[in-house]
Amino acid sequence: MTTSVDSETKRGGLRALHASALARSRWRTAFLLSPPLMWFLVIYLSSLILMLVTSFWSVNDFTQQIDHHLTGANFAQITSGAYVTIIWRTFLLAALVTLTDAIVAFPFAYVMARVATQRTQRILLGAVLLPLWASYLAKVYAWISILEKGGALNWTFSKLGLPDPNLGFTNGAMWIAFCYIWLPYMIVPIYGSLERIPSSLLDASADLGGSAWSTFRRVILPLALPGLIAGSIFTFSLTLGDYVTPLLIGGSNSTLIGNAIYENLLTGGNLPLAAALSTVPIVIMIVYLAIAKRLGAFEAL
Amino acid sequence: MRSRLSRFGLWLWVWAVLFFLFAPIVTIILFGFDKSNVETWPIQHWTTHWYSVAWNDPQVRSAFVLSIKAAVVATALALLLGSLAAFGVHKARFFGRDSISLLLILPLALPGVITGVALNSAFQWAGITLSIWTIIIGHTTFCIVVIYNNVIARLRRTSNTLLEASADLGANTVQTFRLVTFPTIATALVSGALLAFALSFDEVIVTTFTAGAQNTLPIWIFGAIRLGQQLPEVNVVVTMVVILMFIPILIAARLTGTENFAPRVAAAPKSD
């Protein structure tokens, strides 16, 4: 009798203790999280929302002041005429850069993860991360120096007896520079996903008579897909919004969405139109992520 | 035979990519010592003249000082907010826990121009004049995730038994933090801070929209390349920026390894 009452009170006490510990941990979590969350809410998210609202405002032609009446005029403007060409060009370039980087990165990441010794693996990882952390502008400027008329590329071609490629200040130059700058962002996640593949799977595939090619296509590639998608999110997204590289190394036909935003805001003084243009990369990225999710890219992560 | 051939092909590819990754960086460093005003490859005459020109350029100096100031303050704020977020998310189980990591990575995952325009429209709307503080606000926003990643990775690897042992031996929460938790995460904090500093020091895309009349070093470089002015000096300045970024990066690598080294990539959703 008494023992059962004892255990009752004990259990009740334990429950109360547990509840109070839980409440305390909740308070602790709230206390720790509120400063960073407030920062993001007040500064970042509210700015993003304000930007979306701004995209429905307009600029008064006479006063140059922002007119706060809602209008869809900015979106009508960016879905017709020259802006469609710019958006389309940006999208194609981002896709091309992503594809190129995936092709260049994959064999490299494969050697890092599955062929190299541990020591070499570490060296190669360092060799990818150092350029990733080299100054962005230094990398763009380096490509200007290499691709312009008196640069190392023309020199090499002439030494080989080939005609000058004269790639400086063209869309081709922009493509090379983007591929270069974002390449480490593609290598690192592919390497990560390849490294996690258990060797037993590859052995099993070989034991079952799979050729090197079918093992690659049916075992390695599907398991590397999450890394490929993760890398592509960055190569794609970062190309979509860049304006520095096109401005510095591109030519007269190299205007991207980022440049249109930059010019409308900083030289044109048309913040609402710039805000409307800024929604384009966001929408493209949301669609891209939805497709990636559909393909099951996040399940294996 | 075939596998030996494909192995040879793979290594050839690796060497080609390594050349592609490093040739531009080497080129830019070499051009800093080019005597000529007009860059042509190969370099004919060598000089260290442009180093003294850049060193004595008051515009470069003031841009450099502003960059350092902004990076130091942004890093300090990010240290505070990023580690609070990491401690809050670690071990807590609550609805939306994973969305917090996603929210923190957003300023690095979305194109920088979006963060720039968003902050610029907010500053305009609120009537805030652009200054070093608006630069710092922008930089802090995208640096928080770098600290967060470093600290949470370390907390996940730290065994709970250490904290329990400390409590069993009679230490209170503050003592446990000071004597156990802090020493275990100290190198993660330093490493995260160095990465955040380098990220801020080099940033140009968001900064363009949050800086007023004053130039940070990347904005000075951007302007000089655009106008095609002082290009020999640009070579020297970008070389200095590369070196100034490599120093903290190498120290950070020594301290914590390179696990959280690709701040954008490392924050891709992971299940734990």
Description:
The complex is a heterodimer of chains A (301) and B (272). Chain A has 301 residues and is mainly α. Chain A folds into two domains: 2-54; 73-294, MetI-like fold. Chain A is built from twelve helices and two strands, in the order H-E-E-H-H-H-H-H-H-H-H-H-H-H. Chain A has helices at 2-54, 73-78, 82-115, 118-132, 136-147, 152-159, 171-195, 199-207, 212-241, 244-249, 257-267, 271-294, and strands at residues 58-59, 66-67. In chain A, strand 1 and strand 2 (66-67) form a beta hairpin. In chain A, helix 5 (136-147) crosses helix 7 (171-195) and helix 9 packs antiparallel against helix 12. With 272 residues, chain B is mainly α. Helix content of chain B is 77%, strand content 0%. Chain B contains twelve helices and no strands. Chain B has helices at 2-31, 49-55, 58-89, 97-109, 112-126, 132-157, 160-168, 173-202, 205-210, 217-227, 231-256, 263-266. Chain B is globular. Chain B starts with a helix and ends in a 6-residue tail after the last helix. Mean pLDDT of chain B is 88; it is low at 267-272. Classes of the chains: A mainly alpha (301), B mainly alpha (272). The interface between A and B is large, with 91 and 89 residues.
